[in-house]
Design a protein that fits this description.
This protein is an alpha+beta fold. The protein is built from five helices and two strands, in the order H-H-E-E-H-H-H. It has one domain: protein bp1543 (Ribbon-helix-helix fold, Orthogonal Bundle), CATH 1.10.3990.20. A two-stranded antiparallel sheet has the order 1-2. Strand 1 and strand 2 form a beta hairpin.
């Protein structure tokens, strides 16, 4: 099992810092390239830019929790939850008997772009 993970391209886990403007205030966010790629995929599904998606997340977590603790970790977990949800939806959409799960060929899974449900609507 470890061989699959340790052979990951180091560029995937190399960190990159981006400057985001949140309501006129510039802030720097440092995330791994794979997280930035996942956020870009999420933004594409929402038909917006990565920056505007990040601002939306910031506003929604602020409205929901009253503060934004460890926003970079929140974005990492959000990306993992997005990918997990896509996997579950792909497994549900697979025809009976189709191979799914961690050993399935990822290319066989349908490309799904689920709508992101705003946190305020999840209560």
């Amino acid at each position: 099992m470890c061989e699959y993970f340790v052979k990951a391209d180091p560029i995937l886990y190399e960190q990159r810092t981006r400057t985001i403007r949140i309501h006129g205030v510039l802030t720097s966010i440092r995330l791994e390239n794979m997280v930035w790629d996942t956020l870009a995929e999420m933004a594409e599904a929402e038909r917006c830019t990565t920056n505007s998606l990040i601002v939306q997340f910031h506003d929604e977590i602020l409205a929901h929790r009253g503060e934004v603790p460890n926003f970079a970790s929140f974005l990492r977990v959000t990306g993992m939850r997005f990918l997990r949800r896509r996997l579950i939806e792909a497994e549900r959409a697979a025809p009976n008997g189709a191979a799914t799960g961690p050993n399935a060929d990822a290319r066989a899974a349908p490309k799904l772009a689920p709508r992101i449900v705003p946190m305020a609507a999840r209560s």
